[in-house]
């Protein structure tokens, strides 16, 4: 029997960092700040905000890689599925009533119905419902891919990344992205790393150098596309774009091999990251909340 992998503090620290980056991303992208950008007058504040908030989708990739890495040989149960469902619905209802109380949304049968059936409405649209579907599918995905040879698994990933990443990044003729298909793809990549690449070790200097290179490339792509008056986030705006993928892989690789020992406080804080993510990815009403605060903040920069 394989020894159970302990979720050590290095991965938990990564979760915390990724959550902070996602908060920054939501503040910029979901706040309405981007509507105030003037590409005929690119300022330092505008460039700062573009770079400050570009990496949210890459961090979602990171969470999916972690899920695949730990769950490819893990087990789910009805109890675990129910617990995840109730956790997601708890945040959905709590946030719904809070934004109504604060006046960012008005109670109606339509809005309450959307809240009640959010897990159906949000599949292939938002993170929470799509991740829940992925969680249900995990035992079936695991059984299927564990029956493949390494060569077959490699070819499968090549096909998926060509379809989901290469075509929309380089050919720009078709946006092939769909939420659940992409979540499965990143989950499979995390599983592949666990099964076949786990013994590969990079020094911290090399690993974090790769992270730095990816960050520089992403920031550089934003600046270049600004000058070309093209969508500055083209290489990173969706989770399937090339630099969003490579940044997630480099970060995961760097932290997976980082030896920082065990920290009860890091692990404890990390346990709250999924709840924070559920709050930020909750609803249009939450995005309206970010919009009000974001546009106010931008005007004071």
UniProtKB/TrEMBL annotation:
Keywords: Membrane, Transmembrane, Transmembrane helix
Domain of life assignment: Bacteria
Record-level Gene Ontology MF annotations: acyltransferase activity, transferring groups other than amino-acyl groups
TM regions (residue ranges): 12-28, 48-72, 84-104, 116-141, 153-174, 180-197, 204-225, 237-255
Ranges in a coiled coil: none
Signal peptide: none
Domain Acyltransferase: 10-280
InterPro entries reported for this sequence: Acyl_transf_3_dom
Protein name: Acyltransferase 3 domain-containing protein
Presence of keyword Transmembrane: yes
């Amino acid at each position: 029997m394989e020894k159970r992998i302990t979720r050590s503090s290095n991965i938990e620290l990564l979760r915390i960092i990724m959550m902070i980056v996602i908060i920054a991303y939501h503040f910029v992208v979901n706040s309405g700040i981007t509507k105030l950008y003037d590409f005929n007058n690119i300022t330092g504040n505008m460039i700062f905000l573009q770079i400050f908030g570009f990496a949210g989708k890459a961090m979602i990739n990171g969470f999916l890689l972690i899920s695949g890495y730990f769950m490819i040989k893990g087990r789910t149960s009805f109890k675990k599925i129910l617990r995840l469902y109730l956790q997601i619905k708890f945040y959905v209802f709590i946030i719904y009533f809070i934004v109504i109380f604060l006046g960012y949304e008005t109670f109606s049968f339509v809005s309450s119905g959307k809240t009640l059936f959010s897990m159906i409405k949000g599949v292939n649209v938002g993170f929470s419902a799509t991740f829940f579907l992925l969680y249900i599918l995990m035992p079936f995905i695991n059984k299927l891919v564990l029956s493949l040879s390494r060569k077959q698994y490699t070819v499968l990933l090549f096909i998926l990344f060509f379809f989901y990443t290469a075509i929309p990044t380089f050919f720009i003729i078709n946006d092939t992205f769909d939420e659940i298909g992409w979540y499965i793809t990143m989950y499979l990549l995390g599983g592949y790393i666990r099964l076949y690449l786990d013994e590969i070790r990079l020094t911290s200097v090399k690993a974090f150098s790769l992270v730095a290179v990816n960050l520089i490339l992403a920031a550089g792509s934003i600046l270049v596309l600004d000058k070309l008056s093209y969508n500055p986030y083209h290489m990173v705006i969706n989770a399937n774009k090339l630099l969003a993928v490579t940044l997630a892989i480099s970060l995961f690789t760097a932290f997976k091999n980082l030896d920082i020992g065990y920290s009860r406080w890091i692990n404890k804080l990390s346990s709250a990251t999924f709840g924070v993510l559920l709050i930020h990815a909750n609803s249009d009403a939450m995005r309206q909340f970010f919009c009000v605060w974001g546009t106010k903040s931008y005007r004071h920069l």
